[in-house]
Automatic annotation (TrEMBL):
SUPFAM superfamilies documented for this protein: RmlC-like cupins (SSF51182)
HAMAP family (UniProt xref): Salvage_MtnD_euk (MF_03154)
MF (Gene Ontology): acireductone dioxygenase (Ni2+-requiring) activity; acireductone dioxygenase [iron(II)-requiring] activity; iron ion binding; nickel cation binding
Binding, Ni(2+): H88, H90, E94, H133
Entry-linked Gene3D superfamilies: Jelly Rolls (2.60.120.10)
Provenance organism: Ziziphus jujuba (Chinese jujube)
Classification lineage: Eukaryota, Viridiplantae, Streptophyta, Embryophyta, Tracheophyta
UniProt GO BP: L-methionine salvage from methylthioadenosine
Tree of life domain: Eukaryota
Protein's name in the database: Acireductone dioxygenase
Length: 179
């Protein structure tokens, strides 16, 4: 399964794990409470994977593309990575399926603490609309991601603060109803 943990407060290289001492692991049901969903799939032969097809059909993900995050294959690599690591929300879900390599999705919990989620090949995660998050590579410096979306994709990132954004308000509403 994926690993997730509360981050330390150090300003060192974001690509390091940033565990607290002692480690504070976050159980998967805690992520579910934040609306973060997760599947473990077989990343080999993903084009014929029935499980992936089922998820896409059930959730209406008719759009798909692939993103190779490495200096050779991603144009404006430095700028994109800088934007990915700037805390933001979206008006829609963010759906990412890791096919190769690894990386960190950081999400804010109810108390505004950073939870670091370590994504490796086979991990599909869905971040709900309105959750503050960011992304960085880890020290392997490479990831190949599938991006999924319902209809025409919109990747617009709204950087924090966004307390008046409708997606943010709805997210907070859903969170407080769960408590
Ligand atoms: C985004 O909005 O694209 C991100 O949060 C980065 C995730 S993976 C490219
Ligand atoms: Ni995002």
């Amino acid at each position: 399964a994926i690993e997730a943990w509360f981050m330390d407060d150090s300003l060192e290289d974001p690509r390091l794990p940033h565990h607290r001492h002692p480690k504070e692991l976050v159980p998967l049901d805690h992520l579910a409470e934040l609306g973060v969903l997760y599947w473990r799939l077989n990343p080999n032969d993903y084009e014929n994977d029935e499980e992936l097809r089922n998820i896409r059909e059930a959730r209406g993900y008719n759009y798909m593309d692939l993103l190779n995050i490495c200096p050779e294959k991603l144009e404006n690599y430095e700028e994109k990575l800088k934007n990915f690591y700037t805390e933001h929300i979206h008006a829609d879900e963010e759906i990412r399926y890791c096919l190769e390599g690894s990386g960190y999705f950081d999400v804010r919990d109810k108390d505004d603490r950073w939870i670091r989620i370590w994504i490796k090949a086979g991990d599909l995660i869905i971040l709900p609309a309105g959750i503050y998050h960011r992304f960085t590579l880890d020290t392997n410096n490479y990831v190949k991601l599938m991006r999924l979306f319902v209809g025409e994709p919109v990747w617009t990132a709204y950087n924090r603060p966004q307390e008046d954004h409708p997606a943010r308000k709805e997210y907070i509403n859903n969170l407080t109803q769960k408590i």
